[in-house]
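Exercise 7b. Backbone tokens:
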């Protein structure tokens, strides 16, 4: 288990961007992992082209969930709901051993050691599940 909590994971966990909630969000989604209790709330505001213009998140998670929220937050702006769904699906398939890479989202290969720990997958996926669902809900509301 110690191999999961590398210095890089711990560094990411302390550098989560956009930790302010959006009072004018187009959509908000909350996700929780019943296994470890990790929880994330994601707010999104889309621009006129339907891409994420602003992001807010509240993260109460283990170091893996925090690191995932950091990677999601660093690269979510400017992404379409389809981009976010693809990232979510690629990460989930990677952790499940269904693909050899985590897709094109920067930095997700850091979770390679977690493939062997299925109980940790949910926490790692929370941020991507929440942002993909929030963006899709916001787009549907337009």
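Sequence design result:
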């Amino acid at each position: 288990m110690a191999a999961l909590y590398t210095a890089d994971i711990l560094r990411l966990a302390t550098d989560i961007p956009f930790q302010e909630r959006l009072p004018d969000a187009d959509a908000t989604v909350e996700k929780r992992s019943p296994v470890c209790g990790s929880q994330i709330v994601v707010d999104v505001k889309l621009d006129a082209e339907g891409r994420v213009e602003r992001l807010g998140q509240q993260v109460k998670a283990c170091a893996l969930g925090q690191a995932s929220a950091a990677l999601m937050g660093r690269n979510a702006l400017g992404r379409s709901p389809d981009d976010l769904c693809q990232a979510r699906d690629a990460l989930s398939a990677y952790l499940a051993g269904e693909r050899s890479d985590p897709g094109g989202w920067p930095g997700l290969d850091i979770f390679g050691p977690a493939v062997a720990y299925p109980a940790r997958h949910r926490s790692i996926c929370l941020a991507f599940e929440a942002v993909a669902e929030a963006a899709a809900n916001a787009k549907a509301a337009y």
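Instructor comment: The longest strand covers residues 52-60. DSSP finds four helices and three strands in the chain.
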